Amino acid sequence: MTNDKRKAAVIGWPVKHSRSPLIHGHWLKTHEIAGTYEAIAVAPDDIQSFFEDFPKSGLVGANVTIPHKETVIPFLSSLDKAALEIGAVNTVWLEDKDLHGTNTDWTGFLDNLDQEARGWDSKRNTALVVGAGGAARGIVYGLNQRGFDRIVVANRTLERAEVLAKGFGHAIEPIGLAQAQAVVGEADVVVNTTSLGMEGSDLMPIDLAAAQNECVVTDIVYVPLETPFLRDAKRYALKTVDGLGMLLHQAAPGCEKWFGVRPIVTAELRAEIVADLNKTDEQI
Ligand code: ATR
Description:
There is one protein chain. This protein has helices spanning about 20-30, 45-50, 80-85, 105-115, 135-145, 160-170, 180-185, 230-235, 245-260, 265-280, and strands at about 5-10, 35-40, 60-65, 80, 90-95, 100, 125-130, 150-155, 170-175, 190, 215-220, 240. By secondary structure, it is an alpha/beta fold. The strands form 2 sheets. It has a 6-stranded mixed β-sheet. The protein starts with 5 loop residues before the first strand and ends with a helix. 2'-monophosphoadenosine-5'-diphosphate (ATR) binds near residues 133, 135, 136, 155 and 202.
């Protein structure tokens, strides 16, 4: 048990639906840490003054979420290789009055699969990533770190997948969404990083019937927890991993940085967040 009351927060706009205060609140309570974690709404126009004044704010660090993950970068004294390559920061901390940043979305993605689908990376041949937005960048970085031979990025707008692939400077294969079907049968893992499959959106134009028996299918969408894409995968008896675990796992390094305790993602934590999702049904 520590005595100094450290303060951390999640910074976003809007931020009121963020589950980060619940996640960190759970860890503060279960580890008896005398700290606090709150949600702070910072409008895009206020980002400069907020981060310039950060050393005087009383916060030891923060999670940074939409729409500030990229715009925070100019206010940091340093960012690590992962954040630099991904081009986005989701965790910041003060050290000697300077603000530093990293990206834990990619480790959250890998840690979630490691915990929920042990052996998912045993072959490391082909990964199929659907979508080429901000979330896809962290996932592609993670898959590349894990040593996949071939990472195919399928996107509705081919140019965006091409830009993503070029930005990484290694062998990422960009294709249009319509070409994704041809890769399904070769994939060890299929990742949906788009909003396809959220309530009210279009369905994913990919049929998983051709997937190998051992293919793992995962979605970063966690509202609903079981997306139509994951339901489809289950119908073909494929191993599925929902997106909530990535949210839980990406939070752990921040807790360690600010409060000095590396927490684990337990069934109790997950149940607490699932109960909240069932209450409000909104993903942010
Ligand atoms: P995020 O940062 O969460 O990844 P984003 O940058 O807005 O969000 O990216 C959203 C991704 O979902 C993109 O890959 C987008 O495809 P485009 O680049 O073609 O826009 C994809 N996406 C969103 N709606 C889609 C739809 N109806 N059909 C296909 N892809 C869609």
